[in-house]
Amino acid sequence: MYTFLLVVGLVVGIAYIYHSVVVKGKRCKSKAKLHGKTVIVTGSNTGIGKMTALDLARRGARVILACRSKQRAEAALADIKRESGSNEVVFMQLDLGSLKSVRSFAETFLKTEPRLDLLINNAGIYMPGTTEDGLGMMFGVNHIGPFLLTNLLLDRLKECGPSRVVNVSSIGHNFGTIDFNCLSTHKELGVGNSATDVFNIYTNSKLCNVLFTHELAKRLQGTNVTCYTLHPGAINSELFRDVSKVFMILMKPFLMFFFKDTVAGSQTTLHCALQEGLEPLSGCYFSNSTVRNLYPKARDSAVAKKLWEVISESLCGLVKASPCDSSSPPRAK
């Protein structure tokens, strides 16, 4: 009996330490106030995006909720205004699965908002399918949409610097690969609809996020804009909302104990967005609010440049000679 109790106590102790240290993780320590600053958070109607937007609103920022669903975004808008006490929170519709919607969003934003200090590419999905532009759904929403949005808004970010771009990736990028033949042939990061295929495509899209940040940092050298990418942690959020409901019900107890809640999950994003002195680390990858080393494939400059120029620019219709040059409307007065 003594041995049994000792083992149980040891297991409980380890579980407690794991939950306290790994699951909860580090919190953003920045005390920065953001009055007079404007930020965009994509996918901010739920999950860690919503918690990120709420924190930024509490700090005084003007927060643009860039979301696809008007109904869900307006509900989040009401919540964030009420909990932050700020009226400087607005909803602007954005569907990252539609290049037309991305361009429309950028055009509207540039005409109506005089500043942009922080762009947080938070939105992401985990589901198969095809976008209206004929791209693989996860490739389009998780990479191409944010890629185009960032390029269209870079001039405004430069005007308002020092400013930052934060790209939410995943530790899953470690399992990803970039198959340029598949991209050229199918406009997709992989083929197949099995659970394994879908997982592989998702991790490939997350590798795209890291490579995009790597190349973007190079192109931003000499400017007052910096960029960062991150793994937010394993989050008990709605990323897997399209997975079987029965499966999610069965997994709920496991998720609640071993996965971060959305507040804890937003902390590394906030760290990258707000922490003072990160400028020398532009292009780096963070996890648990700490810089992490990347495997060679995630910092391969040749692959990152090819993904940018040969694939992403081409699919977005951006001018190759000036990839960061957006034909943006006149700045709002």
TrEMBL record:
SUPFAM superfamilies given in the database record: NAD(P)-binding Rossmann-fold domains
Oxidoreductase is among the record's keywords: yes
Highest taxon above the source species: Eukaryota
Alphabetically ordered keywords of this record: Oxidoreductase
Keyword presence, DNA repair: no
Similarity field: Belongs to the short-chain dehydrogenases/reductases (SDR) family.
Species per Swiss-Prot/TrEMBL record: Hucho hucho (huchen)
UniProt GO MF annotations: oxidoreductase activity
InterPro entries registered for this protein in UniProt: NAD(P)-bd_dom_sf (IPR036291), SDR_fam (IPR002347)
Protein name: Dehydrogenase/reductase (SDR family) member 13b.1
Pfam family, any one: adh_short
